[in-house]
Design goal:
Blueprint lengths: L1 H10 L22 H4 L2 E3 H6 L1 H14 L1 E5 L7 H9 L11 E3 L15 E4 L11 E8 L7 E5 H11 L1 H9 L2 E7 L2 E7 L2 E3 L5 E4 L13 H19 L5 E3 L6 E5 L3 E5 L10 E7 L1 H12 L8
Parallel strand pairs: 1-2
Antiparallel strand pairs: 2-12, 3-14, 4-13, 5-12, 5-14, 6-11, 6-13, 7-8, 9-10
The structure holds 2-oxoglutaric acid and fe (ii) ion.
Length: about 300
């Protein structure tokens, strides 16, 4: 009977499972201070202190982004940190990938160029759930990180231009990645809603979007809506900007938080980040496990 009552409360709008991780939007990133307004934990404390890790992961899921500092700046440091948070999803780039400037990069991330806000790999199925970036060598000049809350920007678009928002939620957009050893393709709307009409995912990557198969009558309004969304994403008011320092590590929800960077000069100063992706379910699962008190142990 108790179980039935609990279910009935859920059905009448009570807290759904996972509700403790509901997204808390942060529209005006430029007004925020990464060090002050988001959660930072020292790697060793996160490793040894389970309740600290539980609080840190709750912030990761509510804010969409969280940080670790003093992650050993070694090749394997990122994997030790990732293991605290979820399961690594290997891709054609491998378990981990190195973001550093190389001659003739197959991906613009591996150049000195600045990158506008984007989500990673929308051509992949499933899309990478969470992204991890670990600063092994930070550049003292340029190469600052940019982050924006895609849910908040999408809500801004919904309020300002509801027709453009609606078009972006119902037009499937093709994304494509082709290299010597990979051919990846997926279609998804730029703004994905859940059954309640809430924004559930944002996919935006101008480097891997492929031509849409729309007739002339449909394509004009779609591209107008796309440009409107793109210009909001370029608006610096939505950008949290700061420099990761050596040993800093950032984890963010790749279906919500867009990321980018400012340009730098690898000839003057080397810069080296190492990245990996985590499966979405493993991160939510770990956060939920950490919140289970001893009384909830299921053995
Ligand atoms: O260099 C950076 O800060 C970010 C690079 C990037 O966008 C990526 O590796 O996905
Ligand atoms: Fe990226």
């Amino acid at each position: 009977l108790q179980w039935l009552r609990a279910q009935a409360e859920g059905a009448s709008g009570g807290p759904a499972p996972g509700g403790q991780f509901a997204a808390r939007h942060w529209p005006l990133g430029a007004r925020l201070d990464a060090a002050r307004d988001f959660d930072w934990a020292a790697f060793s404390a996160a490793q040894s202190d389970r309740s600290l890790r539980a609080r840190w992961m709750t912030r990761l899921l509510c804010d969409g982004i969280a940080f670790l500092r003093d992650v050993p700046a070694t090749e394997a440091g990122i994997l030790a940190a990732a293991a605290l948070v979820g399961r690594v999803a290997a891709t054609n780039y491998g378990q981990v990938f190195d973001v550093q400037s190389v001659p003739q990069p197959e991906n613009l991330a591996y150049s000195d160029l600045g990158l506008g806000l984007h989500t990673d790999n929308p051509y992949r199925e499933p899309v990478p759930g969470f992204q991890v970036l670990h600063a092994l060598i930070a550049s003292p000049d340029g190469g600052e990180s940019l982050f924006g809350d895609g849910f908040a920007v999408a809500e801004y678009l919904r309020t300002a231009t509801p027709d453009a928002f609606a078009l972006l939620t119902r037009t499937p957009v093709p994304f494509l990645y082709r290299s010597a050893d990979a051919e990846l393709y997926a279609e998804r709307p730029l703004i994905q809603l859940n059954c309640e009409g809430k924004v559930a995912a944002v996919h935006y990557n101008s480097r891997s979007i492929a031509p849409l198969r729309l007739c002339a009558r449909e394509s004009r309004p779609f591209y107008a809506a796309y440009r409107r969304f793109a210009s909001l994403l370029r608006d610096p008011r939505f950008h949290l900007q700061f420099r990761l320092r050596d040993g800093d590590l950032v984890i963010f929800d790749n279906q919500r938080i867009l990321h980018g960077r400012t340009a730098f000069s690898s000839a003057r100063h080397p810069r080296h980040l190492r990245g990996c992706y985590l499966t979405r379910d493993s991160v939510y699962g770990e956060a939920a496990l950490l919140r289970r008190g001893p009384a909830d142990d299921i053995s």
